[in-house]
Amino acid sequence: DDFEGEGVWRYNAALPFEEGVTLPEGHTPLHRVPRLEDDVGVSALRIKHEGMNPTGSFKDRGMTVGVRVAQELGVGRLACASTGNTSAALAAYGARADLETLVLLPAGKVAAGKVAQASLHGARILEVDGNFDQCLDIVQDLASRGEAYLLNSLNPFRLEGQKTIGLEFMEQFFADYETYPDRIVLPVGNAGNTAALYKCFRELRKAGAIEEGDVPKITGVQAEGSAPMVEAVQEGNDEVRRWDEVETIATAIRIGNPVNAPKALPGIRETGGTAVAVSDEEITSAQRDLAEEGVGVEPASAASVAGLRKLREQGVVDSDENVVCLTTGHLLKDPDAAAKAGVDPEPVPNDTDAVLDHLAGN
Ligand code: F0G
Description:
- The chain is about 40% helix and about 15% strand.
- By secondary structure, the chain is α/β, with parallel strands linked by helices.
- It folds into two domains: about 5-55 and about 155-340, Rossmann fold, CATH 3.40.50; about 60-150, Rossmann fold.
- The strands form two sheets. The protein has a six-stranded mixed sheet with strand order 1-2-10-7-8-9, with helices on both faces. Strands 5-4-3-6 form a four-stranded parallel sheet, sandwiched between helices.
- It starts with about 30 loop residues before the first strand and ends with a helix.
């Protein structure tokens, strides 16, 4: 075929369609962060910054495929529950496809940038007096009653698109190092992305594109106040216990019932990976570390770097490892968290001499 896709669609051989509803998405940078690499103490550290997608998160890779499927099916209404990024992506791709969009958000727990996106792209926004998991329960009910087409990561076509994160960073890393990364570290919420990466690596193996030993260890990071997957991995459980009370500054991953756990847990185990929980302070500190190298991410994304640092300190990650950290969302998604983590503006008089005095510390 003569279709030359870009971004996600460059990998259409691994996708259910040749083309999708596109803005376009994918083709994100694999940043070098030499100071952080040194400080964390690994052989190589690269940051796959998914915040550089059209709506500022990795969710776009899933939506370009998922909304295409919805078009194909001729559904009347698209819907999702969201901690924010999925709703922003669905609103944009739904608008692109000229389809009605409904998003259910946990009231008061979604970062400002994300609500603004859903709002401007014209989604109908329902603020639920409950947490994300409860929003997802409702939207699943709506879908099963035929009221909406579900575009959460329970929708397998979303994960097909998100597989391309793995295809891209494996290619990018190999181009620079002539080897594949030993480990991929990512934030975990509903565990959809973890499941997507696992599927990606399985398919690469099956196609003979990589060897068994080339598969990166899938390493998940959650916030301490919201860590049911970490609990299951560390206790060796096959089932994940639903946490009813969850809290973290990383609102994107404020999730107590990771619905994709059955697809994600085997990925962590079989690749020799692990899972670790980090505190809000560790997350904020990692957000600053990345920002100091010019890479602006939202708190949930910084969890990956915080988790790597912790595992390195614990000796779980070796100093000779090559690591990719996935940063899933852009700094501007959560301007309040960024402003809190960063330096405060200094009020000065409207006068050059006074400004110079101020700078001189007088
Ligand atoms: N990082 C960010 C920035 C996210 O928005 C999410 C999920 C994750 C990580 C976790 O990914 O769920 O595949 O394990 N956000 C969803 C949302 C839940 O509604 O935007 P996951």
